[in-house]
Design goal:
CATH superfamily of the largest domain: 2,3-Dihydroxybiphenyl 1,2-Dioxygenase, domain 1
Radius of gyration: 16 Å
Strand content: 35-45%
Structural class: alpha/beta
Number of domains: 2
Distance between the termini: 38 Å
Number of helices: 3
CATH topology of the largest domain: 2,3-Dihydroxybiphenyl 1,2-Dioxygenase, domain 1
Order of helices and strands: EHEHEEEHEEE
Length: 145
Amino acid sequence: MTIKLENIGIAVRDLEETISFFSDLGLTVLGRDEVSGEWADTAVGLDGNHAKIAVLQTPDGQGQIELFEYIHPEAIETEPTLPNEIGMHRVAFSVDDIDDSLAIAARHGYHPLRGVANYQDVYKLTYLRGPSGILVMLAQDLTKS
């Protein structure tokens, strides 16, 4: 049996804001659509499922995220996920320059939860809370600098 990770799906409050944030970090929009109908109800398990979606890809072509903004049923606000909670956790990105990436995030109003850590002079990394409360990890490999 062959298995391949296709993408990570994230429901967002504001699709355009989220696309802007991830695009500024270097991801590219592969496509956009609006989905609804019986097939979408069946696949997702929600009656009347109707959402705007966008698929973004990392510059290396290996990673994709699919963002959806629900039109119907209405999106449900939840408390932001904490780093130690069970369930979907975070999206992690390797970056060439963590300071540049954090400057981009700051322009969107997002900042590290508690600063930037240095892991054994191998990685500089941090978590930040991005659009719709998404936990985003940024990590710079110091052995490649």
